[in-house]
Amino acid sequence: MESLLSTQTAVSTPSPSKSSAADQKASKQLSDFIQHILDENSAQDIIEIDVRGKSSVADYMIVASGRSNRHVSALSDYVLRALKDAQFKDIGVEGQEGCDWVLVDVGDVILHIFRPEVRVFYNLEKIWSVPMPEGLQNVAEEAPADTEL
């Protein structure tokens, strides 16, 4: 997977007009790379949302769950280390203090890592008209309707 990314370090900063096939391929490779890291480290319910043409912020959004605050923290650390090892620059990170929801912005790909309860509460999948993963259905059914996070 590292050789895959060795030629795409330019992907680390968003380009205002994504039109070339090479740029789109690089964005997809970056998304696949991040998903691979998440999968290797036992992230749960990983989904990729293609937001090309729907958002100017990124090409892909990845949403994943960690089992606990500690797992969410570890997942974000694994992804950040892998991206830095692949020489990506200008990576934005939010939420590492509490680790209920960590956002990693790599420009063309935005990663959201949640605790399951927090993921169900915010339900980003619904915003993009993507069904919630089956693994989270039980969490959604058990959550009180007026839960404050």
Question: How would you characterize this protein structure?
Answer:
This protein is of the alpha+beta class and 149 residues long. It has one domain: Beta Polymerase, domain 2, CATH 3.30.460.10. It has six helices and five strands, in the order H-H-E-E-H-E-E-E-H-H-H. Strands 1-2-5-4-3 form a five-stranded mixed beta sheet. The longest helix is centred in the N-terminal third of the chain and has 20 residues, at 21-40. The model is unreliable at 6-18 (pLDDT under 50).
Topology:
Layout: H1 2-5, H2 21-40, E1 44-50, E2 60-65, H3 69-85, E3 92-94, E4 101-105, E5 109-114, H4 116-122, H5 124-127, H6 137-142
Parallel strand pairs: 2-5
Antiparallel strand pairs: 1-2, 3-4, 4-5
